[in-house]
Amino acid sequence: MKKPAFTRFAYGLALVLMFALGSLAEQAGILEELFSYREDVVYLVGQHIELVLISGSLAILIGVPLGTVLSRPRFAKMAETAMQTLNIGTTIPTLAILALSMSLLGIGMLPAVFGLCIASLLPIVRNTYTGLLEVPDHLKEAASGIGMTPMQMLIRVELPNALFVIFAGIRTALAINVGTVPLAFLIGGGGLGELIFTGIDLDEPFMMLAGAIPTAILAILVDIAIAILAFMIVPKGVNPLRA
Amino acid sequence: MIRIDNLTKIFETPNGPVTAADHINMEVPEGEICVLLGPSGCGKTTTLKMINRIIPSTSGKIFINGEDTTGMNTVELRRNIGYVIQQIGLFPNMTIEENIAIVPKLLGWDANRYKARAKELLELVALDPSIFLKRYPRELSGGQQQRIGVARALAADPPVMLMDEPFGAIDPINREVIQDEFLKMQQELRKTIMFVSHDIDEAVKMADRIAIFRGGRLVQYDTPDDLLAHPVDDFVESFVGDDRALKRLRLVQVSQVMEPVTTVSPGDSLKVALERIEQQGYSHAILMVNERNQPIGYVSRSVAQTTNGLCGEHYFGLKADTRPEDDLRKVASLMFNHDTTWLPCTDEHGVLVGQVTQRGITHYLGATYHRDAPVSLAQTLQQISA
Ligand SMILES: Nc1ncnc2c1ncn2[C@@H]1O[C@H](COP(=O)(O)OP(=O)(O)OP(=O)(O)O)[C@@H](O)[C@H]1O
Ligand SMILES: [Mg+2]
Question: Complex ipTM above 0.90?
Answer without folding.
Answer: no
